[in-house]
Design goal:
Blueprint lengths: L9 E2 L14 E2 L2 E2 L3 E13 L2 E14 L5 E5 L5 E4 L5 E6 L3 E6 L8 H14 L5 E6 L7 H7 L8 E7 L2 E9 L10 E8 L3 E2 H5 L7
């Protein structure tokens, strides 16, 4: 499903905030087992307490894990990943098209950030990894954008990356306050199309200099 078809609608879904540790196994330095299938109900209405169900949104959710690089296939339908707060997402080819979430945390020089960047730099240097492109979705929304999307009394909106039908988007998901939200809904408040950058340009940035 394209973000334009979700804009302004409500979904019964909260983004997993991620963790510093997760069950899985390392595959060539990347953490596997962090992708799950999601079938999310879409609601429409003038407000969160006056909505009706209008269908389903199906996607794969790729979990953020501080200090590790998680990955999933991009050939089996839409992929959503987050929360985004400085991490890079990279698509690449290795046994099919994949998406990696490079789990940096706290600061560029923190232990988790260095660990995740080291893992990715070793992986991306492999001869069987090609066509690497990347982005940082939270660059697409300003503080003003986030404030405008936030409900009074609600939690801070979450930036996520969303890949569907060969396009990448940054999306802003705004949790509705629980006082007016018996269904625990989240509003799709905004989206912007992402221009993916070649890995050569991203690798040259200070972010990836260890």
């Amino acid at each position: 499903m394209h973000p334009r078809d979700l804009l302004g609608k409500y979904v019964q879904y909260r983004v997993d905030p991620g963790s510093a540790s997760a069950a899985g196994q390392m595959v060539n330095g990347l953490l596997s087992g962090q992708a799950t299938a999601a079938m999310v109900t879409i609601y429409e209405g003038p407000s969160a307490n006056a909505v009706v169900a209008k269908g389903q949104w199906n996607f794969t959710f790729l979990k953020y894990c501080a200090g590790a690089v998680t990955f999933t296939s991009l050939t089996g339908g839409p992929v959503l990943t987050g929360p985004m707060s400085g991490c890079y997402l990279c698509s690449y080819n290795r046994l099919g098209l994949k998406l990696a979430h490079i789990g940096t945390a706290h600061s560029p020089t923190s232990v988790d950030s260095v660990k995740a960047k080291n893992a990715w730099l070793m992986f991306v240097g492999r001869p069987d990894v090609s066509n690497v492109m990347g982005c940082k979705p939270d660059d697409y929304f300003s503080v003003g954008d986030i404030k405008a999307a936030m409900f009074k009394g609600g939690d801070i909106p979450v930036v996520v990356g969303y890949f569907a039908a060969g396009e990448a988007h940054a999306m802003l998901l705004a949790p509705v306050p629980t006082t007016e939200n018996p269904l625990r809904l989240t509003k799709i408040a905004a989206y912007k199309k992402i221009t993916m950058q070649p890995w050569s340009a991203i690798a040259a940035m200070r972010t990836f200099r260890l």
